Every structure is written in structure tokens, then in C-alpha cells.
Amino acid sequence: MLNRYPLWKYLLILVILAAGLVYSLPNLYPEDPAVQISSASGDATVDEGELERIQSALRDAGITIKAVERDESSVLIRLDDADEQLQARDRIAAMLGDDFVVALNLAESTPAWLQALSASPMTLGLDLRGGVHFLLEVDMDAAVTQRLEVNASAMREQLRSERIRYRGTEIEGRTLTLTFTTEEDRDAARRLISREFRDFDYQNVGDGRGAALAMTLTDQAVNEIQDYAVNQNLTTLRNRVDELGVAEPMVQRQGPDRIVVELPGVQDTVAAKRVVGATANLEFRLEARPDTPDNETERLGFRNDESRTAELMRDVIITGDSVSSASRSFDENGRPQVNINLDGTGGTLMNRATRTNIGRNMAVIFIEHKTRDSVEVVDGEEMIVREPYTERGIISLATIQSALGNSFRITGLDSPTEAAELALLLRSGSLAAPIYFVQERTIGPSLGAENIKRGVMSVQIGLLLVVLFMLIRYKVFGIIANVALALNLTLLMAAMSLLGATLTLPGIAGIVLTLGMAVDANVLIFERIREELRGGLSIQQAIHAGYERAFTSIVDANITTLLVAVILFSIGTGPVKGFAVTLSLGIITSLFTALLVTRAMVNLVYGGKPVKKLWI
């Protein structure tokens, strides 16, 4: 029979529409503006008395508190009005002082029954939700210095293995200088080293006991080191951002030595800076023997007890770069620790060093690159001068009981938070060179709310115009098309929520375009039905022929548009991807609603019934 679907097809369409409705519902529950209180050091907590004083102070200031939630490490105060966020944060920060970080936040408000179905709202991009924007600069001089330090350590090991005596090493700028007691030792060292290290220009300096070998990196080598430092830092930062669980972040290079990081939805800039900008790394070194020459040792203090020091070998067994995975846990006494797994090369080096040094102490050194900013007056203008410096501290000094392999643990950490952050940094990789914050900007939720308001208005205006056109032009069939259009928008929102796609301003533009294209298929079908009616077919035959003969044209037109959207997504970045995602999903949902949903409604209204006149 013409224009009739089997029961299973009606049921399938109904199930899909019902699922779309359920998974689009969380978008009706916007996130609550909130203020989050967390410890600045990881070990302080807000007690009940302080929390009561905070609530009283906010009420006295006329700030309405919607709810208060707390967990092990933080307190979340939900507010009714986003305009009161800044006022609430400033008032709380003034009360608590420097021991706590008070940050803006956006707290999810999806009902529990929807969360039980794994239903969540669409993720909003930086331009809608707010977040943080960082501009970072890579310290190129430090990148060169770090490479020279690694080369110096390898050269010293080579010289010792060949029993060539040397007095010391010195690094200045891009030049590494080795000093010797005789010219013969210097010449032998030059022959040995120059075969392995080809990125240097070699020059003999001095004679006799002042004989030295100056090795200067070539321009090409310096450029390669600096380019590697930026690209490696890009990879590391992307890994760190992924560990933070931020949706749709942006990490990209800007110019020769700068990196832009944007984190949508992150309002706690202090926590974000602590993880993103951390230049921490680890070194594993043996404790020096009493008879070790002074030029091969270095005295370092402990991080948690500056009065304690230890004499360590300068040569490094491995660094944090050899760590393949790391996780936080607790030892048998409840103290925080980090479980370490090394890659193949790191495991081999660790086993070789510990196998021959059982009973000797090995230190784990925490290295962090920092800067001091000072204001200087130059030509009558104040300028911020950045002075980089490096902090090294021992976090663990333990006796080697047996040969270590690929797995072991680090103890001596101050708090679970420090252990968690150290594990995160080790998992994501260390930075190839220090990075410094040139610019930081917090994009507040008020800007996002204004963007959302304008975007929703554009969708409403576009939807209204399309609805009016379809009603005037196609009458009853126009009503069917408009119902399908509303269902199409519902399915699109559900699909984006399920897939975790991020909605941006360009994405809203894609939705507006989808609404226009969604009725395109209906226009083709309805015009085809009109044409078939003019050609003398019966009403039932005209409806059937309209859908059947317009099918190919509709699919061809939408497939080509879908291919363009896929290409945009694959080669585009940020905003372009946001547009491509909504356009792609919109095309798929439009095909479903135009070809199946409207056909099902037409079948239910006209199918198998005697129809004298078709209102189209």
C-alpha cells in the first residue's frame, strides 16, 4: 500500500526522537555561576567556622547563595547571579588571605536522573563559556644551555672511559669549555669528542696546565635546538592540558618562540598556571664518594629541610624524560608517593647504575625553573625585567638495596596534591626549555553569557523566518516541515551533547545555516509533489513519487556539503572546527528528519486514506 510504513519503522523513528529529546534536555539546565575555594599549598582546608563566616559575609553583602558543596580539597559556593561572582570572589579572598585560592567557576546543574543516563549539556567554547588565555614565551638561551649540560655530561663519561684526565667543564653562552692538565690530554680528547659531537666548532685555547678545548655550537645547531625546544614544549603542553580534562583546548605556536594556550571553562588561573607553566623535572644522581674530585660533585639541599644537604655526583643517571608513566599512591605509613615506570632506555641505564652501586645512596632531585620580575627605569620609562633562575632540591635520598629496573617509587613528598601534580608532570613529559608567562587573561562568564544571548537570538530569528515561510508557502505540509525542523534542532543538540562536541560562536553560525538547509530538502520534496499533481497523478501517487524522485537530489546535495565540512574539520583549527562540527551533524540530522520523520508524519495524516484535496 502506498504511503504506509511498517510498524517497526514507526517505532524506530519514535525511539530515536525520544532519545534525542532526553539527551538534549540537559541543555535546558545552564551551569550555575560559582566561587571555588581551594588550598594554595594543597594541605589547608576551610573549616566549618570559616565557611559559616563566609556565608554570613556574602548574605550581608546582598549576595544570594544557591547552594554550598564541599569535598576533600575544595569548597564550591553556587550563586544565583553571574554578576555577583566577582564581588563574592573578592570578598572571600580578602577574608581568607594567601593560604587559599578563590576562583570563579561554572558548576554543572544537570538533574541527577539525567546524569544517571550519562546525559550532559553541550560543552561551550572559550568564546561562550569563558576561561583562561595564556601567552607563553620559551627561554631559547636556557634551551641551548640545557643541551650543552647534557653534552658535557656525555663527554665527561667518554673521557673517563678512555682514561683521559680533565680538570673541569665550563658553559658560557653557546660555548662549552673543557680544561686539561696537559696539551696531550687535550689533543686526545679533541680527537675522541669530535668524532661523536659534530655540531661544534672546535678551538684549542692555552697551553701547558692551562690547556683547554673550547667547543662552540654552530648556528645551524642552535637553530635546530631552539626549534626542537618550541615543538617539544608544544607537545608537552598539549599532554598536560589533556591531563587536565579541558574540553576543546587550544595550544598552538605563535611566532618563533611563543605559544598560545586557551582553556575553556577554566576559571582558576592559579591552578592552571601551576600545571601548564610548571617547568619541573627530575634527575636521578648517585651520592658522591668521599674520594670523588671536587669538580665532579655538587652540594644540594633538601626541598623540605634547607638545613640538610648532600654531596652528589654531577653526572645524571636519568631524567624525568625517561619516565613512561607515573601515578600517585600512598606507602604503608599513609605518606604520599609517586610510582614510576621507565621506558626501555631509562630502565637499562637505571639498572646499570644501581647494579654496581648496591649499598650506595641515590638522590632524586626536583628541578624547577622560575623567574624574578623587577621594575627598572630605562630612558624615563618603567620596564619589567625578567631574571630567570633555577631551584634544585633533593626530595629523596635512599640507599640502593638491590638493582632497580623499570619500576620503582619516589617518596619524601609533602602532600597528596604535590604527589598528584608531580605524577601529572611526569606523565605528560618535561619541558625541553623553561617557559614564562608573557600575558594571562581571564575571560569571564559574563562575556560568554552575552555571546550566548546573541547567538540564541540569531537562531530564534532564523527559525521564525523559516517557519513563517513554510507555513505561508506549503500550509499543512509547512506545519509538518516545521515540526520536523524543531525535531532536527533537538536531535542536533542531543548529538553534540552525546559526542562531547564543543559549541562555539562559529558553531552557532553552523546551526543557523543548518536550519536554512534543513527545509531545503522539504522544499524539493514538496515542489516535486506539486509537479506530480500537475502531471495528473493521484494524490497518493504524487506523495509517493515526490519523496522517491527527490531522494537522489537531496542525498547528492547534502553529501557534497558534508564532504566540505569534513575537510574543514580535518585541516581547520579552533573556530573553523566548531563550525564544521555543527554543520556536519546538522546535515546528518536534517537528512533523517526530512526523509524519514516528515514522511512518517505525512503517512500518518494521508497514507491509506481517501484524500480529495491536498493542502500544499
Automatic annotation (TrEMBL):
**Superkingdom classification of source:** Bacteria
Q: Which UniProt key words apply to this protein? A: Cell membrane, Membrane, Protein transport, Translocation, Transmembrane, Transmembrane helix, Transport
Location in or out of the cell = Cell membrane
Checking InterPro entries in the record gives: Acrflvin-R (IPR001036), SecD (IPR005791), SecD-TM (IPR027398), SecD/SecF_arch_bac (IPR022813), SecD/SecF_CS (IPR022646), SecD_1st (IPR048631), SecD_SecF_C (IPR048634), SecD_SecF_C_bact (IPR055344)
Q: Which residues cross the membrane?
A: 455-472, 479-501, 507-529, 550-571, 583-606
Keyword field contains Cell membrane: yes
Instruction: Using the record for this protein, list the coiled-coil segments as residue ranges, or answer none.
Output: none
- Domain Protein translocase subunit SecDF P1 positions: 230-287
The principal localisation class reads membrane
Q: Does the keyword Ubl conjugation apply?
A: no
Q: How does it sit in the membrane?
A: Multi-pass membrane protein
Protein export membrane protein SecD/SecF C-terminal domain residues: 438-603
The region called Disordered is annotated at 324-343
Residues forming the SecDF P1 head subdomain domain are 305-433
Which ranges carry the SecD export protein N-terminal TM domain? 2-104
- Gene3D superfamilies xref list: 3.30.1360.200, 3.30.70.260, 3.30.70.3400, Multidrug efflux transporter AcrB transmembrane domain
Subunit info?
Answer: Forms a complex with SecF. Part of the essential Sec protein translocation apparatus which comprises SecA, SecYEG and auxiliary proteins SecDF-YajC and YidC.
HAMAP family, alphabetically?
Answer: SecD_B
Q: What does this protein do?
A: Part of the Sec protein translocase complex. Interacts with the SecYEG preprotein conducting channel. SecDF uses the proton motive force (PMF) to complete protein translocation after the ATP-dependent function of SecA.
What family is this protein classified in? Belongs to the SecD/SecF family. SecD subfamily.
Record PANTHER family:
PROTEIN TRANSLOCASE SUBUNIT SECD (PTHR30081:SF1), PROTEIN-EXPORT MEMBRANE PROTEIN SEC (PTHR30081)
What is the official name of this protein in its record? Protein translocase subunit SecD
